[in-house]
Structure formats: structure tokens, C-alpha cells
Design brief:
23 helices, alpha/beta, Immunoglobulin-like, 3 domains, Rossmann fold, 6-stranded mixed β-sheet, binds 1-deoxynojirimycin, 27 strands, TIM Barrel
Amino acid sequence: MKKMLSIAFAWLSFNSLSAQNTSVQNIEPRLEALLAKMTLDEKIGQLNQVVGDISTGTEVRSDGLLAQIRAGKVGSVLSHTNFDNKTAIQQVAVRESRLGIPILFGFDVIHGYKTIFPIPLAQAATWNLAAIERAERIAAAEAAADGQHWTFSPMVDITHDPRWGRVMEGAGEDPWYGSLVAQARIRSFQGDDLSAVNTLAACAKHFAGYGFTEGGREYNTVDMSEQRLRQLVLPPFEAAVQAGCATFMNAFNTLNGVPASMNKHLVSDILRGEWGFRGLVVSDWNSFGETIIHGAAADDVDASAKCLSAGSDMDMAGGTFQRGLQKALAQGRVSEQQIDDAVRRVLRLKFALGLFDDPFRYLNPNRRAQTLEKPEYRQASREMAAESMVLLKNDGGLLPLDPKGPFRKIALIGPYVNSIGHKDYMSFWTLGLGNPQYDSTKVVTPAQALKPRLEEMGFEVTVTEVCLDANCDEKALSAALNAAREADLVIACLGERGIDCGESRCVSTLELPRGQERLLQVVSRNNKPTVMVLFNSRPLAFPWASENVPAILVAWQPGFEAGNALADVLTGSVNPSGKLTVTFPRNTGQIPLYYNHLNTGRPQANFGQMWTSGYLDVPNTPAYPFGYGLSYTTFGYSGLTLSKTAIGPGETLEVSVTVANTGKVTGQEVAQLYIRDPAADIARPVKELKGFEKIRLAPGERRTLTFKLSAKDLAYWNHEGRFKADSGQFRVFAGGNSVEVLEAEFELKE
Ligand code: NOJ
């Protein structure tokens, strides 16, 4: 047995707001002076967040909003779209409430604000943190110019279950990569000054465990070991604290029986205690009230006492604190000190945003007019959408479409070829909430962009929209079939509706709808080479297409520039470079399927092998693994070399690998570095991502990349409740995805 080596990590404790280089000076004395003037009612009012003009949850409406604000009973308004009304609300708060405390406006800025970008999962597939930062800077600039102060983003939940509708909102299945993406988003939302007129306060959500909801079913139970929690779920949240994230949001779920909003272990012990987070914690939509429905609180008083004592501060949409907190104080269940501390966290954020200096600083109509929907924002969205697309298959180099090739007539078919006004190519966040500010006609559809583009190149193009739902309609099929018959090549735009992407949009099956698969089958009977383009918000399963369709491109839900970005990729003006950050399974029954799994005592080497951990009807391998994605060129990996054969705890190992462009066009490659501890004191994953670099190489060009590994990268949360690395042998892997890798070994010495 190996000897344990204890690595003590200095976890950085940040006061998230003082980490901001805010121009607002001397917050604390001003804050204390204000707090001293507040009545208990006014304090509890600051902890109350009410619903604005659109609903993003169960029907809890805020009646008499202005009257409540005037009475000092509201600290924050969420999901308010109308600019002029926001100004009116702020006027009432500042001019008509006793203490004139400004309102804090919060909004779900999930993938763009006015200019819609690809969904977050697609953004993650770019493996381009600079592009993600650019997208969030634009989203922040637009939202802040429209009067918002605070985004309920990023969602940093890791998940292993793509049935869960919110898989679209995260960075995928890997906690290390998820941490980097979380930090990139927070950095760019917040900038280095929260009071700047183009930044927003960020909110890391949902704390914690929400991505591991049983069966991938929304709002369901989460039960997991502390080891799993620390290793898989919490790293992106801790990374968020380290990046100075201003706020956190509770999760809806219970974690090991305790609703997250009243979970002391999570909020007091870990977030505030271990990580030193001093910012605001907001509930999720009525999640304080839902502690009663979970069966973990008796009534509003009990729920209020439990949630506040756990360290949560602000009550979103539920009004539980309004009804219960005063009584909880009277009964001695909470102290005034606890209420004051929560109020301080709300006021501190308002000060940091500059709202006490100028409550209307984000409500300038001229700035709004100059900032929203700039043409360069759309260009950024288009570039990101193209970079996020993942080429899964390209037999015989069918793509990019070549006017000098054998195909002249192209048929564009499928339900998502020209879906105008149907709210596709985006998500439920931008479409499904009755939100008047999203206009789905602003989307450039595949047909709108591809038809002229391909015709310019000399192709003849037909467009046949086929509305297919679960059951394929025979008439629609025959129209598509006719179009396909006349063509030399078919581009089938399939996948999911935009409206099926987001919160409360879970599915029990990931298979491509039967009608869509039938469409492909009928077309294939005519021997027409087909390109399947998927518009999707989650990994889907399409075994027949994987077997029979020569080219498959995952386009995700790409946002406003869907068609242009698709045209860029299909015509080769952009060489695809996206790689999966979620595993694509062969069928739904394989879920949960993820690359960083444990080995088991009986791993299956070959499908069908008896007495091993496997299924009778499907291999254990995925359809497309984590990290996978093709290019129009090819890349070769060679010369994996380590700077040393052994390192001590304080030393760094350099791992070098040479990547060569072995194809005929310039392309970008995401080189990935993984490790494995094959004999630790507890079982460790078969692979764990620890490094990546995205590089551009011309044909014939090669570059040697060097990654650094230290003992910290080898550590894990062990059964003694600490991050530790075990001394002994480690494996290191480098390659273009999590399966096809070169391998070497080194030792970590005591
Ligand atoms: C519920 C969602 O879980 C959360 O992510 C969102 O920010 C709030 N509703 C507000 O819309």
C-alpha cells in the first residue's frame, strides 16, 4: 500500500467584493450608518426579491410592486424587461421610500442579452476561453445598458445526465474545465469594477448538487458522498469564489436529505467557512418556501429560521422571509445580528455597483440606444457559433462543400432548415418566458444563409421544410423524399426545438425523434450522400445515423447567427474546431456515461465479455467521447516526453507532446492532457483532464506543447476529508480526445 502524502493547499479566501477594484470608496462606514437607521421591517424588505414583468418560475406574481417598494418591503426585482418601467421603479425606491435605498435588478443573462449567442454548452465546446470572455463582456454591456445590475449566471453545475434540461447551461461533465469556464465568465461579467456601466455582478449557481438530480429529472433528489461532492460538484464553485464572484444562488434540490437553501454544511461551513465567501447568497425561485414542500420545514417561520441560519440571505420570489422572518426573530430562532449580516451583504453589493452614488447610472437611454445589438456583437456571436460546432463524422471528406466536386444540386430539408418564428436555434431562456425582448425573427435560419451562399458558389439549392414531430407524417416525408431524389446531396437539419432547451425541459429519452430518423432512412434508400446537422441542447443518441450517414455536424442551439455560422462551417470558410465537453451516448440506457468514471473491479475490455461490468445489448463505450471533434484537416500526436521520471511534492513536471497538422488545410486543434492515479488509497477515475491548449497549425506545421503538472494536480478529496495526493506511479495521457491518447508514466515521491 502506498504511503499517504499530505499536500496542504492554501485555499484562497476572497472577500469577493473587496477583490473588486471598485471606484466606490468607503463603503463600510456608509453602510453601517444606513443600517443603523433601518427598522426591522426595512431590513427584512432588503432581503426580499420580487418578480418583475416576466415570470421565470412557478406562478408567484408580485402584486402592488410599487406600493411594496414605497413601503420599503423590496430589496431587489428579478426578471424585469421594460426599460422605462425599471426607471419608474427606481424612482419610487429612491424618491418615495423612507430611506431611498435603490432597487437591485437581477436577470437571467444566460447566452447573451439582446444579441443572442450560442447556448453555454456550445460556448464551452469552443475550448476558447477568450471567446467566452468576449461573449460575456458583450452580454454584460448590453444588460447593464438596459438597466440590469446582476446576472443569475454562470451556472457552474457539473452533470452526468443529459436528460436534465439544464445541461445546456453548463460547461459539461468535467469539473476542471468547468472551473476555468466559470472563472472566465465571472471575470468578464464583472470586469475589475462592479460600478462600471458595462459590468454586472455575477452569480454562481446552483449551490449545490443540482446537476446530479436523480434520473435527470428537474428539481429531483440528490444524494451523493462527500467525496463525490468535493471532487465533482464543488470545484467550479470554489473557483468562482477565487475569481471574486459577487453572489451565489442556492439549488432547488435536497442534498443528502437537506434542501440546499437550508443546508448549513454547504452554505455556512463550506462556502462561507472554508472558502471565506463574504458575498450575497440568494435563494432560487421560492426555494426557501419549497423547504416546506420538501418536508424539511414546518411553515414559513421554520423555513425562514432554517434558511437564514444556514447562511442564505435573499428570498427570491417566494415571500417566505416576508411572512416568517420577523416571527422567527421574535421566537429567538434567529438573531438580529444574523439579519443585519444578511442585509449588509445586500447593501454592500448595492454600494459596490455604485447604486448609492447614482441609482440611475444603468438607466441612461442614450447609452442604451448606443449599446444594444451593435453589428460587431452579432459578428462575435457568429464567430462563436461557428467555433462551437462539432464535426462528428466526415466520411470521404464530404465536407466542406466543394463546387468543384461531384455534387451540383443540394436539397436542404428537415424541421430546422428554415424555422422562422418557431423559436428555434435558441433556448427556453430567450424564448419560452413570454419575454417580449426576444424576437425570433432576428435569427438567420440555415436556409436564409445557406441558399444564397451555396448558389453564389455555383450550386443549385432547394429548400423543403418538413415539420416532423415524434410521429413522422407521410406527406411531409414524401415531399422531403422528392426533394432528395432530385438532388445530388442532402443536408438534413434535425435535432430539438429551441423551446425544449433549458429549465424544466427534461427528457426521458435522448434518441433522435423517430420521425427524424425515418426521414434519414428514406433519403438514404435513394443513395443520396447526406449531411446531418443537429440543432441540439444536449447530447442526443442516433445509432442509425452514426452507422449510415456519412457526415454529422453538431450545431447546438447557435443563437441569432445560426444560419451564417452553419454556412461558414459547411462551406469551409471556417474549419470546425469544436470538441465535446459532454459524452454522446449510444442510447439513453447508458446514462450516466462520462469519461472520468471509475474502473470498477471488472472493467469490460470487449463487448459481450462475461462476468464484466457491462450490458448485454450495448457496449460500454460512448458513441462520441469527451474531448472529441473532427476538423477538415487531420492532426498527429508524437513524442510524449516527461522532463523527469519522478517528482517530489514541491516540484513541477513538464509534459511535452508534438502536434502536427497532417492534412491539407489550416486548422485548429484542442490538445488535451489527462492523468490517472492507478493505485491510490481510494479508487480514482480512469482519466482526469488536467490541461489543454488550442492551437492553429498550417498544413505540415508542427508544434511542441508543454504542460505543467504539480502535486496539486494529482490530489483528490480522500476519506480523511482532505485534498491529498498519494505518492507512487501516475499515468499521463496526451491526445486530441479522451480516448485516442499517447501515454507515459512518472512517480510522485514522498
Ligand atoms: C430558477 C432557476 O433555477 C434559476 O437558475 C434562475 O436564475 C431563477 N429561476 C430566476 O429566473
